[in-house]
From TrEMBL:
Gene3D superfamilies: 3.30.70.100. It comes from Cryomyces antarcticus. This is ABM domain-containing protein.
Length: 131
């Protein structure tokens, strides 16, 4: 049934989360933010860590967060050829909690850390429901 709602084929790749992730995955809502880069960089890793520390201190409704690099090279319209993806997985109490955090000064001051060197970015929410 997925094919009926997709605009194209799926693009699959693996991500090795380098920070503890179990807390983030226990949340009812996951934010999946993917940032595309020409290559891996320790500067980017440090920026993600700093961004996560700011959010942990100031984001109401944030349950936990983790991030990591794609194992495979990926293709994206923002890249010239292939590159690497850095994925941020943040667990939230609700989509509304995440959207409210995006309006705070703390978010507005720290998000350039993630966007500064990225060639492109995408963000999606996944609401997890027990069946």
């Amino acid at each position: 049934h997925l094919g009926t709602i997709m605009s194209g084929g799926p693009e699959l790749y693996h991500v090795k989360l380098t920070t503890p992730h179990t807390t983030a995955f226990s949340a009812p809502v996951l934010e999946l933010a993917t940032f595309y880069f020409e290559s891996e960089s320790s500067d980017v890793e440090a920026a993600f860590e700093k961004f996560a520390k700011v959010a942990a201190k100031s984001a109401e409704g944030l349950v936990g967060a983790a991030s990591g690099w794609s194992i495979e090279e990926v293709e994206h319209s923002s890249l010239k050829g292939k590159g690497k993806a850095r994925v941020l997985v943040a667990g939230w109490q609700s989509v509304d909690a995440h959207m409210k955090y995006r309006e705070t000064q703390e978010f507005k001051e720290s998000v350039p850390l993630l966007r500064e060197k990225a060639k492109g970015a995408e963000m999606h929410h996944a609401e997890l429901k027990a069946s």
